[in-house]
Specification:
Elements lengths: L9 H11 L16 H13 L3 E4 L2 E4 L1 H7 L14 E9 L5 E5 L9 E2 L2 E3 L7 H13 L7 E12 L2 E14 L9 E4 L13 H9 L5 E8 L2 E7 L3
Parallel strand pairs: 3-8, 7-10
Antiparallel strand pairs: 1-2, 3-6, 4-5, 4-9, 7-8, 10-11
Amino acid sequence: MIDQFIPEHHIQKHILGVLMHMKYARFRDMRPPKVDTNLYTYHLNILKKRGFVIKTDDGYCLGREGLSYVDRVSIKSLKIRTQPKIITMIVVQNANGDVLLQRRTKQPHVDTWTLPYGKLHIDDESVLAAAQREVREKLAVDKLPLTHAGDCYIRVLVGKEILSSTLAHVFYGETDEVVAGRELVWARPHRLADYDLAPAVEQIVARTFFRDPFFFEEFVAELNEVIERRDYDN
């Protein structure tokens, strides 16, 4: 199991807060006021050992882990912010015009039907490469020409609370190679409403079928029902 270290001590946060706004800093620049030197040095060494801070000829600066950390935290509180999930989502059609649906096997929205999708990995070479990886992993298709049809931002609410927020890069492809089963089904486009769909699926399919050069839309959904849509067409 990976030991993911998150700086929590106020001295560590102070050091990182200083380096967040400086390319290099001197030893004394990062020391919090009225903090014992030995205690300060102890926490600085922890950050150095963990790769958050490195010492160079020019002074102290953020290491790779430190740069990644400050990119994800609030400037004021230095607490890690919850970030939207970024995924690729693929609208796949066969020669009969059917649309491929994938069963969700985990919460939220377990046992609903969605479009084949997957999270972007930080080491994916590109968004297209991420989509092609999902095609191989989820659909067992080695090569499927894909077109980046558009993007959409989906927020799901429970009352006034945000359950999830997702930025989806939507791709379109055509194939007859996918074999339907328990987790994958081919559905007639005009019968999508017969399925228990995850948020925004029907709207994304419809928008992809417009074949515009590119689209961007935002959806706000209350559980499984889209309650608001804002269009930003390019």
